[in-house]
Amino acid sequence: MRMKNLLDLPFLRLSCLLLLALSLSACDKPSDSAPDAQTQASLLTVDIVQAREQAWPRKIQVNGAIQAWQEIIVSPETGGLRVSELLVDVGASVKRGDVLARLADETVVAEQRKQAATVAQAQAAYEQAQSDYRRARATEKSGALSAQKVEEYRNTERTAKATLQAAQADLDTVRIKLSQTRIVAADDGLVATKTGILGDVVASGTELYRLIRQGRLEWRAEVDAKQLAGISVNDAAQIDLPDGRTVAGRVRLIDPVLADGTARAVVYVDLDRNAGARRGMFATGFILSGDSQALTLPQSAITRRDGRAYVWLLRDDDHVISRAVTLGRQQGDQVEVISGLTPQDRVVRSGGAFLAEDAKVSVVSAQTAKASQ
Questions:
Q1: Is residue 373 part of a domain?
Q2: Residue 30, Cα to own-chain centre: how many angstroms?
Q3: What is a single molecular function from GO for this protein (predicted)?
Q4: Domain span at residue 87?
């Protein structure tokens, strides 16, 4: 009997262990009627926004070089003279009539004195011819001189007068040449280049300076035929300079034809004075051509992935799906959606990087969102 009790002891121990394991397993299993609090707590809470239609300025992005509005080439009108003075340097502002350079005038002054003497001689000859002609006419009535002889005195007087006039014209020419040894600015401007060399004997028309007339610069933006159709004279422009500054401008002139080969036209944009732009800069900017309606979203609603833009849309069952969109203009923290969205779509405002396709989300109420702001 004692041996039988010993054999039953392991069996009893094993039965107790099985009963204990089943009890613990039953305690860990959740009740079907209890709410799934853990699942609800794990849902991502999102705020919803809808696209708005706004009137935005139409921006046409273009590139182009900054050039002088007009240039003035400063060169001598007379040649064969030596450059004796160069009075201004690059970057100087000059006024109309300012003397910029001088040519050596010694030979011209000597030529002027010589020509003045020639005029004096011609004047004396003319006065003598006048006197002879008057006396001839006085004696013609008495018959002392024939009519033919009197006519000869008259022709001599006329020839002397013409000689005097020619000498005076030559003197005027020399005086003009002397005045041209002073090379002056044709208009107000800014000295852009200086190519004159002191002591150089220059020919007529040799460039000494180049001025930016009135200091005015313009942006010559190149546009294609499609862009050209939306641009008008007096449209505003914004130009981004290489140093980060922005310059305002206005369209002054539009090329009437497109260039052969490139099929592009130039739009001439006047720039504001003293804006920091410099001739020769290459700049990117925008031409603002009126207003147009734009469907806009906050920048935070856009998710970028693999080089494309997406938004997350909320379905009626509180699940989200992604949709590719095409973006356009930007203004502040708003961005234009050109395609892929309607004003009725409900869009996740932010946090798109943490969402997954067809994931269920918890939508924050309007009151809660307002209170959290």
A1: no
A2: 71
A3: efflux transmembrane transporter activity
A4: 79-103+181-209
Half-sphere exposure of 277 (CA within 13 A, CB side): 34
The whole model's pTM is what?
0.65
Backbone phi, psi, residue 343, to 5°: -65, -20
- Measure the CA dihedral 262/265/266/267, to 10°: -150
CATH number at residue 163: 1.10.287
Residue 164 burial (10 A CB sphere; 0-12, 13-18, 19+): buried
What's at 264, amino acid-wise?
Answer: R
Provide the 10 A C-beta neighbour count for residue 331. 13
pLDDT in tens, 103-158: 999 999 999 999 999 999 999 999 999 988 888 877 766 667 777 887 888 899 99
Q: Do 66 and 134 fall into the same domain?
A: no
Domain for residue 326, yes or no? yes
C-alpha to C-alpha distance for 244 and 277, rounded to whole angstroms: 11
In contact, 99 and 76? CB cutoff 8 Å: no
Domain assignment present for residue 99? The answer is: yes
Tokens 């996740």 map to which residue? 348
Neighbours of 126 (CB within 10 A): 21
